[in-house]
Design a protein that fits this description.
487 residues, alpha/beta, Aminopeptidase, Glucose Oxidase, domain 1, 2 domains, seven-stranded mixed sheet, five-stranded mixed sheet, 12 helices, 17 strands, 24% strand
Length: 487
Amino acid sequence: MKRLLSFVLASLFFFPIFAQEEDKVVERIIELGKSDNQTMHHSDVLSNVIGGRFIGSFALSNAEKWAAREFESWGLEVIVDTVGVLNVGFDRGPFSGRLLSEDGEILHFATPTFTVGTKGVQRGEAVIMPKDSMTFERMKGVIDGAWVLWDSLSPGFAVSQSEPLMKRVIEAGALGIIQPANVPIRALYDKEYKKYSFDSLPAVPNILLAKDQFDKIYKKASQREYFQLEFDIRNHFRMGPAPYCNVLGVMRGSEYPDEYVFLSCHLDSYDIASGGVDCGAGVCVTMEAARLLALSGAKPKRTIIFALWTGEEAGLLGSKHWVENNPDKLDKISNFFNRDYAPTVPTYIAVNEAMYEDFCKVCEGIGEINEEFPFQVIKNTRPPRPRPTTAGGSDHAYFAMNGVPTIGLGITDHKGYNFNYGEIWHTERDSYNKVYPDYQEHASIVSAIVAYRLANLDHLLSREGLYAEPKAEEPKVEKTKGRRSRK
């Protein structure tokens, strides 16, 4: 009885002290977040110093080193995990183009990642892509030294230069292939990039030209007007191996080091712009949350992992790699927060019944940090369990498919900046000036507090009713002569 009484008294003494320590950490996070918030500094470095970061690029390698250095400087354990290696690296250089005619103009265009540039400044006439082999035989003489206009609206990916007719056009001496593209131009990559080596690269440039200019040039070519196109595209390749890596900043838990809370985003981006939004907006918030927690003296009960995934744009490569190599940890993840969306502000979180009370505690007072940004916890109906075909296109997918809670902070354009994600997503407009400092800085504070408090719960989040299981398929009915049977 005496031992039980001693335990009870010790507990009554300990828990208030722990609560006070937690409150002090949260107060310090808010103080630092308001007086010395470095979110936009991280964004500036990532977007304007380092730039666009597709896998295989020098920029991505540079970003990995920078992020690892920053995590280490804040006292975090750093894990740099190689996910894959490419045979050849790619780095985009400057590019320009002109229509040379009486009504000439500067051309608005882009090229997909892992496509070649020009051989210096190259000029030539323009011809329309032959429709078939018979047409090609009639016009192959005029293709030599000309730009080939292919009237097929580009989705952003490079055309396959190994397709038979395209290969014949290139072998006939075409300077490059030009396609129309909607503006803002979405420039993705050559899907065959993984098979390339330094001695086996695409043969000619693939140019995605603003549709209005393409239509003008196509009309000129159709009417056999004389004009020339001039391009100078400096896309560069480098010899491999070109590795790409996850960078994880780890704040070890004081009581449950083998249980986890994740703050997550992806470090890679498309390189036609600087990746300021997708996913610079996630990286700078995740890194600043790590910094605020580290400088506040936080000692969470559970381990918090600040995960900067690689290769998200190339197929969720980094997060998939971690899930496949850490199956024993998946049941120990309380929640996986992933920020890979618009650079707007968290104003709510939607959770199911089993998590509701916990998140009410975790998010207590969040709406009072800044009077401009309210916050609420709302109950959500159970979403269906993600499947490989429905998991979504971000790094939460493989975690969710394995039953890990991936409850995200709900965001809104609360001040009405009229952010248009459609014009940003994988386009030339994905830049530093498209993020909102007040939204981003507040998101860093909220992310730090929510992750810290969740890591300090005395239990993992319940997964009861996390996902609604799919309905059983109705038995198939086969028509037979004179009767119906069920299988």
